[in-house]
Amino acid sequence: LCSCSGTQGRAFLFRTPVATASDLRLRNYLHLAQGAPETAFRLFIFDLHLRAVIIKAMAVLETELQILLGVIQTDKRFVSLGTLRKKVFNRPIEKRQKIAEALGCNNSKELAAVLLQFNEVRNLSAHHSRLWNRKLHFSIPKRIAQQVALNCGKPVSNNSAAACLGAIKLILNCCPSYLDIDEELETLLSSSPLNRSFLLMNMGFAMS
Prior knowledge:
Layout: H1 37-69, H2 81-88, H3 93-102, H4 108-126, H5 142-147, H6 161-172, H7 181-191, H8 196-203
């Protein structure tokens, strides 16, 4: 599972860990690492940084939703993604349609499905739950999953991390250019000592 390629540049993300099979952080990774604690720890670190990318992307999205809804967060008022998602669908249909189109969706039904999955991955990421190879409960609409391709390719399934990242790319393309999801993912993949194909396949990307 390990590979020496791509360990230059930002390899500091993956410093050689000191890990044992009894380390509780590794309990969700050991079986994929064939019982090797060091490899399991590297999977844990990869997932940790992937979740950080998700949190950054959600920060951009939440800001755009606040602007579109006219609900600006202040030091005294916290507005969660879940709250913003509900506020979108309390708006009249014409307003919902405008918000959907502003974020790259064809209609409010597509936007609802995207935000539902985003809410799931945001919560998984914020609460430190395994994400990279998880089959999510909610799915990205088929049109978005199949039409919006990352540089790494298209997803095999609509409820994978790959499909989620593609939908994030769609939304970010409609926002100010604070974050490039392809660049973020490539940095993470090229920094990891783990096999690139192994990581991408388990994230749900179609392998040629």
